[in-house]
Amino acid sequence: MRAEIFLCLHRSLFLSWENIIKENKLEKSFYQIDQKQLATDLQTDLKEGLSKTAAAERLSQNGENALTAKKKKSLLSKFVDQFKDLMIGILLAAAFVAALTGEQTDALFILAIVVINAIFGVFQESKSENAIDALKKMATPKATVIRDGLAEQVPATNLVTGDLVSLEAGDVVPADLRLVDVANLRVEEAALTGESVPVEKTDKILTDGKLALGDQRNLAFMNAHVVYGRAMGIVVATGMQTEVGQIAGALQGQDETKTPLQENLKSLSKVLTYLILAIALLTFVIGYFTQNMPVIDLVLTAISLAVAAIPEGLPAIVTITLALGTARMAKKAALVRKLPAVETLGSTDIIGSDKTGTLTQNKMTVEKVVLKGEIVDLSVQNPFESADLSTAANRLADVMALNNDSQFTAEGLVGDPTETALIDFNEKYRPEQLALLRKQERLQEIPFDSERKLMTTIYGADEAYQVTVKGAPDAILSRVKNVWDKDQIRPLTDEDLASYQKMNGDLADQALRVLAFAEKSVEHLPAEAKSAEMEADLTLIGFVAMIDPERPEVAESVAQAKAAGIRPMMITGDHPQTAAAIAGRLGILEEDDDRDKTVMTGAALDELSDESFEKRVEDVKVYARVAPAHKVRIVQAWQQKGKVVAMTGDGVNDAPALKAADIGVAMGITGTEVSKEAADMVLADDNFSTIVTAIKEGRKVFSNIQKALQYLLASNLAEVIAIFTMTLLGWEVLAPVMILWINLVTDTLPAIALGLEPAQPNSMQQKPRGKTANFLSGGVGPAIIWQGALQAAIVLTVYGLALAFPDHSGTALVHGDALTMAFMTLGLMQMVNAINVKSVHQSGLNASAFKNHFFNAALLFSLLAMMAVVVIKPLNPIFHVTNLDPYQWSIVIAASLAIIVVVELVKWVQRTFFNRG
Ligand code: ATP
């Protein structure tokens, strides 16, 4: 006894709660501790949870409940990383050669450019990282915690040891929990234990000795998925203290995924690098043997070529454009969880969308009820005031209140809108009874799931246990034996059944969501409620019909999607007639659509083989009464046809479909944490229209990346052709510093600015680009080649003319002037060409051409920076240029602008005679 007292004192006086945990971990494991003892040890309460102040204190003392991800790279290591590039190696070699040949200024300048490039690289990397971090923050999972006796949703990172957490199907377990109140909880914890079948959990103490994790059944571990049931649990470990946190290396290998585009680019860059080394070698050989050029000049030329041809800025531009795209999407409520999704989004062909909450508002209101075989319109009649109906109405309302999981919290009534509507109904007509009913203790339950489409609860005491069932009318009617009629129970006849089925259909046709209610009493409380026994031989009480208005903006988005060649489909657990009625109002179904072909039920789908379904899949626009597993089949059938499928989902069972889809879309508000984890994108507002907006953004991002690519590759090609030809002709070749300067100025601002271009006006009138399209599709590849060649041709013409007609105004044109003119023309023309690449086939000078102010500023700044090296005399020697006179400038400017005239002309010919764009 003394020892115990001492231990107690010792505990409360000398040990922080954190040490207590450590101590417990050493002596006893959490599964071996009695609930009350645990609550005392962790200074919490099994019903009320922690107080808000205690939770805040613990949070500030012990930090966030987060698995610390890979250590962030420091700025310095990011900077050093920039030098690990082959390109930089070549440039450093160039600086070395320049220094050897006595060209100190060249050497220093090359080094300066390398450093500026690296700084710019660090800047871009950090900017992309910040955008992605911001996204991650927005996607932090939420947890329901009871503090000061009230339930509230908090970011899971705010949980602390001792917090009382509520779990339900679809949740990702937010920390390690000792379960204290379990109702049919089943948890999938394969990632931790390797056990792929969900494990049944308990709240009982386990007194055995050392148990393997998989056998610690009264604990739920962080990151496991709740697939069924409900429970309360006390947080016993957070963050890195949790079991997953402790697994060494668990967090490694979580490298950010590269998008297909980034992968393609990586291989393209590799190929280009080798190709260019080969061309450089060839130039060297030709120059040496045919032109007798000095070796040093040839080395410098080869280096110029390499500098010219390797698109060093590309990967960074792509990453930053994608990252900025995700930031823009986030502002419009589409949170992209995986970067590749930004790219895939733009090519979406099919959107399979849930109905409830995504196409509709998920604001349910009970409009009609069916009592004693009659439809009662609540806007016309109050059944509680009718002598004939009041008993049945009260019985129905009782079951509505009892068979209900919604909860009164600090923020008011929360829960599934289908269920809160039933409470609202009670509150409106009989608030006192509602208060009494809510006090009753639920003894057993079989939670709702979208396979059974039923939910059951058991209340009562001593041989009068009341089983109440609610669910989809078809599911209930097939389990009903009796019916409540004339305030008494009698067997259900075939006529009754037919009449109820007809009423169900009629209500569904009015776009109403119908729920049926039934009950029975049993003498013995089952040890565990099983569907087969409890949901059979029921007595039907009545129906409730609710309106769930469509979201007002969805019809417009459906029309937009259709115009963009995207097919919107409704996939719902609701009745086919309700589904069809709403799909008709939204334009998913058209007036003259044959409903037999365009509406398919899950049951009908089950009867089709994969082959026969593939034949029918193109007809169907509405799938009703489907279970989540059907969604996977629908996704796969379309993918078989080579289509890119976006699919929404909110429940725990939707995760496989979300993973199978090209774009899995989860719901931010009503979605379960499991579905969010499986998704590529989360809709912060649950709204279908947001998907269409995101697709529009996705198309824009892709086409802007193409613009930047076309711009940079055409410029590089022009440089290579020009240098190669100059060598062949024995002309003085552009120096590495010139090429470096052009690339520094063009690769940075104008290229990024192209990534920020607004969407093209017709972007949502074009068909999806298709799965096989890549960044060279849509005429971009050929445009790079002819525009690159054209630029080179113009530069060489200017150079050739300047060499051929040296004396234009009495002053002799020296060689240096011709080279300077070629250099300036090449640089300025590339920038002017940025206007051309705004559209592959449309005019670059249309009404919206200069709406992107960042682009305008970037272009102006770059043009001035380019000209500065010639205009500002002290800079001339660094760049090996001479100062041009007005006559020479006018030739340079005219030649640079010529690129717009010629390209516009070619585009016009392409549009007019070849039907392009
Ligand atoms: P969607 O799939 O478009 O979100 P949904 O909400 O109708 O539509 P489910 O949640 O799978 O899809 O529900 C299927 C059916 O189950 C509903 O049409 C309704 O009849 C019934 N149902 C829905 N919620 C409950 C509930 N809480 N209790 C009992 N039955 C329910």
UniProtKB/TrEMBL annotation:
Q: Which UniProt keywords apply?
A: ATP-binding, Membrane, Nucleotide-binding, Translocase, Transmembrane, Transmembrane helix
Q: Does the keyword ATP-binding apply?
A: yes
Entries under InterPro entries matching the protein: ATPase_P-typ_cation-transptr_C, ATPase_P-typ_cation-transptr_N, ATPase_P-typ_cyto_dom_N, ATPase_P-typ_P_site, ATPase_P-typ_TM_dom_sf, ATPase_P-typ_transduc_dom_A_sf, ATPase_P-type_domA, Cation_transp_ATPase_P-type
Q: Matching PROSITE patterns, A to Z?
A: ATPASE_E1_E2 (PS00154)
Domain Cation-transporting P-type ATPase N-terminal, chain residue ranges per copy: 29-103
User: Which residue ranges run through the membrane?
Assistant: 83-101, 107-123, 271-290, 302-324, 709-731, 737-756, 776-801, 813-833, 854-875, 887-906
The lineage's top-level taxon is Bacteria
Any Pfam family: Hydrolase_3
Which protein family is it in? Belongs to the cation transport ATPase (P-type) (TC 3.A.3) family. Type IIA subfamily.
**Name of the protein in its database record:** Cation-translocating P-type ATPase
Which organism is this entry from?
Fructobacillus parabroussonetiae
